[in-house]
Amino acid sequence: MKRKWLWSTVFASLLIVLGFMLPQQRVQAAEKTYTIGTDVTFAPFEFADKNNKYVGIDIDLMNAIAKTEGFKVDIKPLGFNAAVQALEAGQIDGVIAGMSITKERQEKFSMSDPYYKSGVVMAVAKGAKIQSLKDLRGKKVAVKTGTASADYANSVKAKYGFSTVTFDDSNNVYDNVKTGNAQACFEDKPVMQYAIATSYKNDLELAKNFKMAMANNYGIAVKQSEAATLTKKINAGIKKLKANGQYDKIVRKYLGNGSEASQAKKTAAMQETDRSFMGLLKSNWGTLMSGLGETLWLTIVGIVCATIVGILIGLLGVVPNKFLQGVSTTFIYIFRGLPMMVLALFIYSGVPSLIDQKVPAFIAGVITLTLNEGAYTAAFVKGGISAVDGGQMEAARSLGLPWGKSMRRVILPQGVKIMIPSFVNQFIITLKDTSILSVLGLLELTQTGKIIIARNMEGFKIWAMVALIYLVIITLLTWLSNWVQKKVNA
Amino acid sequence: MSTRVEMKDVRKAYGDNEVIKGVDLQVQDNEVVVLIGPSGAGKSTVLRMMNGLETTTDGEIYVDGKDIAHAGKNIDQIRENIGMVFQHFNLFPNMSVLGNVTLAPIELGKKSKAEAEKEAKTFLEVVGLTDKADAMPASLSGGQKQRVAIARALAMHPDIMLFDEPTSALDPEMVGDVLGVMRRLAERGMTMVIVTHEMGFAKEVADRVVFFGDGKILEQGTPTQIFDHPQHPRLQTFLKQVLEA
User: Fold this and answer.
1) Which residue, of A37, A245, A277, A295, has the fewest CB within 10 Å?
2) What kind of architecture, by CATH, is found in domain A117-216?
3) Residue pair B166/B178 in contact by the 8 Å Cβ criterion
């Protein structure tokens, strides 16, 4: 009876997982929709506005192109690195994220015609003595990974004698200059002007003796197999929009006439008016709660799958069979040994190219949690069973009970009691570990925080909110676990 | 009289270290055999070999004519007929006294739950613990735990009962209760193999006493032969030490 129950649980969770996969594939089959990845933290090209709606030059432009050319787009804010990796793996059809057109990218992807001409500027702490490249000797410069600004910094750092520190998020780049850990940063002009206009007014300024460098062109990256279709449509669309004035309208909406003052004015209109902690909390409440919802959903599905897998693998580890024990030990060794972020990226971006099949981010996230948390669960399930006095198994076997019956009726009930504190611990760890899955672009709580900060640059206040929400949920989870623990031990 | 247990030149070694060095032993039906000897002599190991808890390196063991050492999956069925009582009781702490006694008959499909519980009460009567049926093991004294363990073994209606130092972990005042139960079993004609340090009990209840030393049987015989006319010098020294203590 018990075994039937176990298998039906496994079956049910498989159905749930499959349930996530099916609708997405059906949508793709029914209508011609291109999935376009974008960055989350590249205002004013893409960012969530105060209503948590994705806006920005790239977003508006992509939608306008699609409309003119008669196709549908599903724009996914994945984060720059995740988006590029997803494109490489064929998970998505294109990326629009203020990508400079470079030789390497042209070889890897089908790059569209240029749609925006940008250039690198240098920003320093307000009132700093450093105002030119020459002043940077022996100093540190902060840049965002994978950007044209980072390329620029690397190309001149030997000549001017500075070193670079790299970050994944623009906000971290600016904060490093603000706090003095780095003395300057390089960034695309509209992006830098946006940041200064939002919350770095009193902290950063454009370096006075730096002429805009390395003019570069933004293009839309498309996967090679769609070069003849999607790239062609995009190029035609850009041309039309530039000719009919729609393009200028979109750019002006965010940058004004391009000067610092004009862009600042436009930017202010897109921001929260109340910048106090409570004000920000109020205006971002809905966004944060939707992030929390995704976090909880990931946690619940992750815990269920990881617990089932963990118990099965843990049991294999105590079966009197050398091969099965080996399977268990190897599983634990590999998945406990791999950093979760590596595992997540491997499953999301590595595996699809191997099996030639898209892995949706949510599924990749759940698989990552299942393998990683499952390995930890298996380890303490094994340990809990081993911790039961050896005399118990001897006594049960001496009565003529077979190994399986002895395990189920005598050893497991005692082992489970030993394991319960570890289970509680693992549930809490799983909840926290979901934040690592933000690298897959999943819109869970941490990623939501990043997105809000990308718009308003209020890193301290927003991270404090995110931290508080995690603490509240973990407190509730701990109470629930303690209550369950009491019930079980009673 | 039929032979219940037959051991032929049984050996056990850990690498080069031989701990059981060729034991030949027979136990007849209705016989009570007591194994004595200094600790480390191998008496518990030999006892545990009789129900396959301990593996052998060489030799043959038959219980009720069935090969124990090479039983494979049949070991469970053979064990149903061999009751085992441990030094540390090994009651299942997650079940009541009644649960402990009825677990095997119910799980192995020997009896319905109602039948098993009804019968369990008669076994609890045998060991004098009728009133403890619903108690949890943790609430029992050592002597009570051991008597429950005996009832649990009896519930499978074994032909043979093995006792591995059943009173060694008990407070002195509890020993009498447990020995009393064992005495009653012997009187009913249960075949029993007992490892114990209770020489008085051995003298009184045993049909045959077997003296172990250094992984071998050094001497065996009736209680009178062993305790009153010991031949082997090791046995003489052993008895002197035990009786003087």
Assistant:
1) A245
2) 3-Layer(aba) Sandwich (3.40)
3) yes
CATH architecture, range A277-489:
Orthogonal Bundle (1.10)
Say whether A117-216 and A26-116+217-268 share the same fold: yes
CB B20 within 8 Å of CB B42: yes
Distance CA B130, CA B121 (A): 6
Structure tokens at A462: 């927003």
The dihedral region occupied by B37, where left means phi > 0, alpha psi between -120 and 50, and beta the remainder, is left
Domain A26-116+217-268 falls under CATH 3.40.190.10: yes
Nearest CA-CA distance, residue A396 and chain B, Å:
8
Question: Which of B76, B86, B90 comes nearest A400 by C-beta?
Answer: B76
pTM higher than the cut 0.95: no
Contact status of B71 with chain A (Cβ, < 8 Å) = no
Among B92, B108, B153, whose Cβ lies nearest the Cβ of A410? B92
Task: Map out the domains of chain A as residue ranges.
Answer: 26-116+217-268, 117-216, 277-489
DSSP strands (E only) in chain B: 3-14, 17-28, 32-36, 58-63, 66-67, 82-85, 160-164, 191-195, 208-213, 216-221
The pLDDT tens digits for A135-187 are 999 999 999 887 888 889 988 999 999 999 998 878 889 989 998 899 999 99
ipTM of predicted complex? 0.93
